[in-house]
Specification:
about 260 residues, alpha/beta, Rossmann fold, 8 helices, 7 strands, about 45% helix, about 15% strand
Amino acid sequence: MRLKGKNALVTGSSRGIGRGIAIRFAQEGANVAINYVGSARAAEETLAAVTAHGVRGVILPADVGSVDDVRRLVDEASAALGPLDILVNNAGIEKHAPFWDVSEQDYDKVIDINLKGAFFATQAMVRHLRSGGRPGRIINISSVHEDLPFPNFAAYCASKGALRMLTRNLAVELGPLGIAVNNIAPGAIETPINTALLNDPRKLGALLNQIPLSRLGQPEDVAGLAVFLAGDEAAYVTGSTFVVDGGLSVNYQEQ
C-alpha cells in the first residue's frame, strides 16, 4: 500500500472526484478527513467506503470559501487523525452565465471556493507542517479550462488559471521545506457538476466526438494520479500540471 500510515485531508470529498480520491487513498492505506458542505448523507457514504478499507476516517463539515472555516478544518483534521501529510484542494464550483450577465455574487462565490479556499487551506496546511518540521504534499484539482476557453464560465476559467499559477509559485517557495505542490487538470469527468451535460444528448455527443478515448472520465481516473503524486514515487515531482482528459485538450474545438 503506497500511502500506508499517511493522513490526508481532501476538501469537497463527499462526492465526485473528491470522493474518488478519498476512497482510493484509503485503499492505499491512508487515513482520510472527509470535508463537505451540503449533504451529510453523501459524506457518510464516503466515510463508510473509506473505513471499509480498515483505515480511520472523519467527517468535517466546512465551507471552503471561508478562511476561518478552512483554518478550522486543518486543525480539526489533524486533531482527529494526527499530523497531516497530504492536502488535496478538490472543492470547486462553476456558475453558468454570459460574461455580460455575471453577477458579483456569483463571481465571488466561484473565486472564494475555487481559488481563495485552496490558497488559505494550503497556507493552514503549510503552517501545520512547519510547526512539526515535516515535509508534505499538496495536490490541487484544477481543470483543462485553466488553458482551454469555456464560454459562459469566465469566472471558473479565471479561478482555475490562477490555481495553476499558484501551484507553480508555491512549488518554488515551499520546495526548500520539503513540501511538493502539484496540479491535476481533469477534463470531462462523470460527476454531479456535469449533470446538465450528462442529460443533454446533443452536447454530450458533440463532446465525446472530441475525446480521442471516446468516453467521459471517471473519478477513479483522477484518483489514480492523485495517489501517485501523494506517494514516494513522486518524491521528485513538484510544480507540474497533469492533464487527465482522454486527449480532449489536444483535439478540442469550442462548439
